[in-house]
């Protein structure tokens, strides 16, 4: 058995891989190989290089892992979407035990490596319960191994299905407008453009076509069947009373929080048995040999001739939507010039081609369409769930009973959860006692959770509270890391004994990038430049494989919510709700003594700060000044910026580019601003120098952690081309040092410049800073400092034994929880 992770749909690769490792550890199955990602690409001539990571649909895949979110933008990024899946609503870290297996850069087996090794070993059955990119790439790259794949079981698609959600009640008034009611598909964010597709097939329709038309026998469990097995109230109540194993408890917790946070009161008619139903059907079919008709206990089956729609008629057009054909003399993969793949391909959420005024959307990308004749293939399809053979049971479907029986079996049950993993486990918050101390300058740190930001945070926490009083942290998921990485911020604060510091979560989209109709989804116009794999989100979300070495904090992101904050209902623990960035800022303002103000240090895109500026004078009057680590002042068109993967944008700095409108709002405001631009950051970005200085200092837990992280970044930069930009993160430490630095030691000098930020919506110029003596905003710009003194100040502060870590690492925490408390 092996597992590969679909990295271009509902979850982020870094969070997913560690969650799978922890689930396997709970179940005592560390023997199961797990693959994710890969750094290979597809060349313009359609050559598929080894280890393509599956981060992008095949139609968007180039030679690296950055790229546009053509299909994925239909998936919510925050609540109810990838944030909640990445964290499993907050239960992942509170419940699952932590074993020794974890993601590590360049050591993690890739999806293709695991597939090739597993399928090469002999006859294999494949379950697909996500997008089909990984497996389609395997089939295209390894045709000689196709013979080893005996059968493919797929959850997804909708053949004759009619969506039961979004319908008007029978007794409703004429004002009720049906939404996706009756559609074949289930893409609730996109039904006005595409009412035909189901998420798994839509995420990479070309990949799904390759799988369905591979010639390998396929059994499909589509929406046709899953729509007939909604989670019922009786099933929920029975499940609540039957949690005899750790896995049953974990599954029920997940189901309950999904219900409690559901956006309306129709959970029991809108939430279905999806992937688990497919697994049950497949297991039942496989128990019988030569079961060509797919006889099983749980679903009625039927052979249907289907295909997967990958483009929209008319075929043979060239409208800029289809990279397989547009601008090419020979179609990619030798596709037929006027064939089924040659039409318009949906480009984005609200593709104008797809929208019909006062009508149903006309795009069908990802539609599992029933066809007659040679254009389709016969597929064994589950058409409806079977009723429970026990007529007296509270459970109306046969699969419900089996699901609960299997989940609660003692055989092969989970070994422990996080709390029972340790004989003397105890959760405790570490908060300092500042009584009798005169606290220093009030500071709020705004970070995008890059590697450099975590080092800057450690530095801020090491500064004497009499000098710097770090009152709060706001995190911006519009930069280098996904929103669920906020857990690593909580863990670092716990390590340093600062569980008193509130952490606010910012918007998941750059300004004007969320969808105006459905704000939970939106565009990736700017953060598409961040690689999905190595050197990008995969590494930031795992802190380059070191996040799990931090001690585990009792605080973490949770999906718990409250009516007080606009939720449809209170969950079990509304007090654990994750506060938003603007709420944390408001609480900081209210906590200030009369006449006191706050300095904001911001290390990422300026999304959160722009929101504060737009909130009005009541929110900005408390700001003393803002130190912005970012921006690039180009002198004479000679100094290039650092925006990766957009060659046409030569002079912008990444923090400005990732949200140019926010940068324009902040840097044209009336606030006092100090800019620490790219030029001066580059002067203090030498790995050998800073590591040499750290090696000469005393070993504190924070020095050890920072050395491990910086050494890893340096090694990766030397080892693999995907990591050439690692010195970006060294420059991000500078703001924290300058904030509290002694000017006489650092010998820092400043100049005043009148600047403007470009936010034109043209990616070739967005985020660029120009000097405008007449209309520009006057800001202080850090021009120079003694870089050797800077390294000394940084290293000496980290090695200071004052305000050092309370719990130095997860290993130390593990030892504490393995011995009785004194």
Automatic annotation (TrEMBL):
Any one GO molecular-function label of the UniProt entry: hydrolase activity, hydrolyzing N-glycosyl compounds
Organism: Anisodus acutangulus
UniProt-recorded name of the protein: Inosine/uridine-preferring nucleoside hydrolase domain-containing protein
InterPro entries on file: Inosine/uridine_hydrolase_dom, Ribo_hydro-like
Family: Belongs to the IUNH family.
Annotated Inosine/uridine-preferring nucleoside hydrolase domain residues: 2-281, 443-791
């Amino acid at each position: 058995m092996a597992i590969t992770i679909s990295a271009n749909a509902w979850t982020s690769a870094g969070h997913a891989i560690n969650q799978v490792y922890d689930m396997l550890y709970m179940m005592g199955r560390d023997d199961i190989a797990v693959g994710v990602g890969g750094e290979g690409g597809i060349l313009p001539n359609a050559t598929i290089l080894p280890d393509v990571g599956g981060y992008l649909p095949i139609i968007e895949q180039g030679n690296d892992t950055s790229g546009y979110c053509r299909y994925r933008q239909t998936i919510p990024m925050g609540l109810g979407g990838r944030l909640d899946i990445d964290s499993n609503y907050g239960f992942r870290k509170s419940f699952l035990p932590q074993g020794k297996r974890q993601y590590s850069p360049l050591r993690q087996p890739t999806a293709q490596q695991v597939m090739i090794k597993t399928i090469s070993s002999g006859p294999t059955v494949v379950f697909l319960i996500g997008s089909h990119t990984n497996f389609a790439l395997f089939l295209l790259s390894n045709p000689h191994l196709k013979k080893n794949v005996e059968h493919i079981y797929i959850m997804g698609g909708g053949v004759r299905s009619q969506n039961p959600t979004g319908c008007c009640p029978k007794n409703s008034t004429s004002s009720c407008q049906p939404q996706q009611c009756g559609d074949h598909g289930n893409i609730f964010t996109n039904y006005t453009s595409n009412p035909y597709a189901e998420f798994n097939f839509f995420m990479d329709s070309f990949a799904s076509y390759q799988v369905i038309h591979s010639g390998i026998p396929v059994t499909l469990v589509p929406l046709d069947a899953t729509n007939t097995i909604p989670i019922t109230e009786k099933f929920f109540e029975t499940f609540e009373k039957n949690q005899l194993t750790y896995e049953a408890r974990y599954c029920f917790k997940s189901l309950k929080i999904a219900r409690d946070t559901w956006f309306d009161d129709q959970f029991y008619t809108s939430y279905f048995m999806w992937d688990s139903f497919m697994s049950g059907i497949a297991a039942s079919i496989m128990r019988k040999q030569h079961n060509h008709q797919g006889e099983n206990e749980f679903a009625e089956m039927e052979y249907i001739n289907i295909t997967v729609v990958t483009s929209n008629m008319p075929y043979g057009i060239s409208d800029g939507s289809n990279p397989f054909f547009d601008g090419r003399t020979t179609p990619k993969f030798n596709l037929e010039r006027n064939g089924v793949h040659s039409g318009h391909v949906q480009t984005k959420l609200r593709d104008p081609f797809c929208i019909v005024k006062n009508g149903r959307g006309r795009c069908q990308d990802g539609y599992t369409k029933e066809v007659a004749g040679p254009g389709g293939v016969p597929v064994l399809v589950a058409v409806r769930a079977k009723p429970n053979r026990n007529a007296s049971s509270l459970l109306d479907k046969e699969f419900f009973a089996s699901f609960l029986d299997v989940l609660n079996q003692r055989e092969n049950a989970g070994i422990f959860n996080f709390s029972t993993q340790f004989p003397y486990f105890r959760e405790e918050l570490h908060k300092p006692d500042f009584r009798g101390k005169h606290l220093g300058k009030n500071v709020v740190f705004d970070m995008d959770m890059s590697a450099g930001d975590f080092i800057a945070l450690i530095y801020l926490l090491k500064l004497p509270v009499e000098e710097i009083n770090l009152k709060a942290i706001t995190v911006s998921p519009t930069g280098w890391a996904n929103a669920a990485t906020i857990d690593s911020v909580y863990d670092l604060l716990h390590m340093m004994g600062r569980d008193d510091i509130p952490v606010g979560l910012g918007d998941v989209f750059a300004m004007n990038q969320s969808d105006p109709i459905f704000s939970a989804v939106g565009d990736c116009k700017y953060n598409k430049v961040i690689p999905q794999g190595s050197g990008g989100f995969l590494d930031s979300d795992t802190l380059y494989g070191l996040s799990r070495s931090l001690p585990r904090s009792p605080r973490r992101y949770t999906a718990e919510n409250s009516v007080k904050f606009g939720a449809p209902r209170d969950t079990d623990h509304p007090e654990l709700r994750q506060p938003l960035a603007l709420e944390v800022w408001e609480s900081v303002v209210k906590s200030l003594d009369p006449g006191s103000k706050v300095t904001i240090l911001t290390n990422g895109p300026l999304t959160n700060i722009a929101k504060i500026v737009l909130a009005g004078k009541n929110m900005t009057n408390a700001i003393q000044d803002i130190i912005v680590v970012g921006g690039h002042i180009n002198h004479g068109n000679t100094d290039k910026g650092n925006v990766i993967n957009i060659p046409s944008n030569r002079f912008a700095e990444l923090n400005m580019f990732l949200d140019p409108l926010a940068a324009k709002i902040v840097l044209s405001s009336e606030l006092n601003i100090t800019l620490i631009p790219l030029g001066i950051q580059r002067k203090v970005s030498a790995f050998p120098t800073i590591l040499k200085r750290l090696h000469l200092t005393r070993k504190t837990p924070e020095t050890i952690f920072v050395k491990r992280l910086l050494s890893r970044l340096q090694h990766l930069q030397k080892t693999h081309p995907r990591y050439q930009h690692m010195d970006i993160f060294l420059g991000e430490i500078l703001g924290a040092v300058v904030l509290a630095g002694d000017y006489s030691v650092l010998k820092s000098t400043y100049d005043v410049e009148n600047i403007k930020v470009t936010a034109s919506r043209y990616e070739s110029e967005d985020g660029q800073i120009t000097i405008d003596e007449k209309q520009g905003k006057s800001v202080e710009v850090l021009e120079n400092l003694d870089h050797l003194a800077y390294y000394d100040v940084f290293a000496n502060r980290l090695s200071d034994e004052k305000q050092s870590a309370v719990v130095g690492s997860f290993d130390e925490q593990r030892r504490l929880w393995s011995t009785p408390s004194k």
